[in-house]
Amino acid sequence: MKQSNSTFRAFRVEEKNGSYVGEVKEMQFGLLQEDEILVKVYYSSLNYKDALSASGNKGVTKKYPHTPGIDAVGVVEETTSEILKVGDKVIVTSYDLGMNTNGGFAEYIQVPSEWAVKLPEKLTMKEAMIYGTAGLTAGMSVLRLTELVKPEDGKIVVSGATGGVGAFLLSKLGYSVAAITGKETEQDYLINLGATEIILRSEIENFDKKPLLKPFFAGAVDTVGGIILENIIKSTGSMGVVTCCGNVASPKLDLTVFPFILRGVTLVGIDSQNYPMKYRTKVWEMLADEWKPNRLEDTCCEIRLEELQQKIELMLQGKIKGRTVLNLMR
């Protein structure tokens, strides 16, 4: 075990006078439990769920002080597991990491070994965190979508496009992609990601209220839910597939069954938090190889621990595009 008098740096969020404040602090190592690993973190990434945790959202994190960070990649330094050995490079995402278990905004994490995926040989640590949970979730969505919808079937629409890699992956696989965004200034950025068409969020939010709309899409990757998902489903053509992985707009849907029983539309839920390990491993391998975009690092901004609080505030204001990767090496 690490020496009892040794410490590591972590971004700790504490409640002070009714407000939640994040600061870089020195932390003590804990005792490793059965089937746990201690990982020296090289990179993490900033996600919207991290920003919620850092702002005191009790729906994400129940107890404070707390270290957010739902993504981490690094090297196993200590282990009580028979699955992983010291020196293994691993990715840890999802499960309870960064929610109620101290997360990746720290130089070390201590987690169950079953949460870790070995880093694919063709993927660097930084690339793994450029993907992060957002990329893994997009990969899960693309995997399910491509089982039933082919490029020749028509256009795929992607919502929340400025924050994810869904458009990137689908374009790489030969699909025509329409990207939905609320940021009019980001059209060139989305085109560079591979989108062939831009749809403003206000436009799709104001579609007709009819239970079925003209079929525009062969499929969709939705990350926001609410009225955008409603109108995507109503605008999806015969035998189309819509994947759903988020509810930042709303968890509620106001729909009839008509898209499902008159057009045969399939709505596929994506549970990235507890996705089965064999499929999780498969998606990471594909992201590392045939799915890897040519300009993956173009979507990334790299920061240090001391810059996190500012980036969190910008994310909560909707002023961040692409991926923010946290470099924890020193």
CATH architecture group name of the largest domain = Alpha-Beta Complex
Assembly category: single chain
**What is the gyration radius calculated from CA atoms?**
20 Å
Query: At the fourth CATH level, what is the homologous superfamily of the largest domain?
Result: Medium-chain alcohol dehydrogenases, catalytic domain
Give the N-to-C terminal Cα separation.
Answer: 21 Å
What is the overall shape?
globular
Fraction in helix: 25-40%
What's the structural domain tally? 2
Portion in strands: 25-35%
- Report the top-level CATH class of the largest domain: Alpha Beta
Q: Which residues form runs of ≥5 with pLDDT under 50? A: none
Count every helix, treating DSSP H or I runs of 4 or more residues as helices.
9
Series of H and E elements: EEEHEEEEHEHEHEHEHEHEHEHE
Content-based structural category: alpha/beta
The biggest beta sheet reads: 7 strands, mixed
- By CATH, the topology of the largest domain is Quinone Oxidoreductase, Chain A, domain 1
Task: Count the beta strands.
Answer: 15
What do the pLDDT scores average to?
92
